[in-house]
Structures are given as structure tokens and as C-alpha cells.
Amino acid sequence: MADGPSDNELKGVPRVMLWIASVALVGMMLVVVADVLLRLAVNRPVRGSYDLVSIGLLVMVVFGMAPVIARKGEILIDLIDPLLSRRVLHVLGLCTIFGTLALFLFLGWAMIGPAMDAWKWGGYSLELGLPNWMLWVVAFIGLAGILWTVVLRLRRTLRGEGDDDPHPSEEGAL
Question: Model pTM greater than 0.90?
Fold first, then answer.
């Protein structure tokens, strides 16, 4: 079984984001279990369970990506890696980091329009009546943490820090 991420890989923003994502996951599980048990036992489901699970899923996804990026835990397909030199693997790693940065910058840019619409025109969640713009704020906070983590990983890679192995071991990867 794989060891958990080291303190060097997950410190600062990625560690905080990992804890927030973990709390969201536990919260989602507790809400679902309570909803099912209450519905079964007394025919009284948890009010707002749909919204709570939806919000928890949003938090878990956007706050859970930064720790994965920080520890190089992305899905790895290393068909050609054994054939390439360490320098070429380093260049491919840089391309991956720049691609990740471009992807999340594009995602942030694409989120601006719908977020502005949610602010301008309103809209509320189905059961709890929470304004939709609040969910967009959570998404942008998570995206800021992801971008921060990508920039830190890029800086570490350019400096050659923590580059003993360009990829985690098979046990460390997904």
C-alpha cells in the first residue's frame, strides 16, 4: 500500500486544501447516511440533503485537486518513460506543468461568464435557497489554490528541487 504524501510535498496551501476536501467528503457521507437512515426509520429525510451533497461535491473537487498536483499524483501512463533520458523526462514534466497551468487558466476564464450571470440574474439552490453566486465564489477560491499549487510546482521543477524522480512510484500514482 502506498504511503501518504510527505510533509515536503503537502505543506501550506495544498495541505489546507486537502483538509477542506476531506471534511467535505466526510460531510457528504454523513449527510447521505443520515438521509437514508432517517428516510427508512421515520420517513423524514434530511432537509436540504440534495444541496448539501452538491455543495460538498463542489468543495471536494475544487479543493481536492491541489494536493494531487502538489504530490505529482496525476494519472500516469509511462509507456515510453523507460526509453527516455532523464533530461527528456524533465522537459516532458515541464510541458505537463505548463499544460496544467494553461488548462486551469482557461477553466478560470471560462467560469467568469456564468459566475457573472449568477451574480447579475440571481438564482438559488433547490432545497436550501442559497444564492448560486456563493457556489461560484467557492469554485474560484478553489481555483486560486490550484493555480497557486501549479505555480509552486513549476517553480520547484525549474529550480530542480524535489526532482529526484520525475514521477511518483507506481504505488504513489493513481
Answer: no
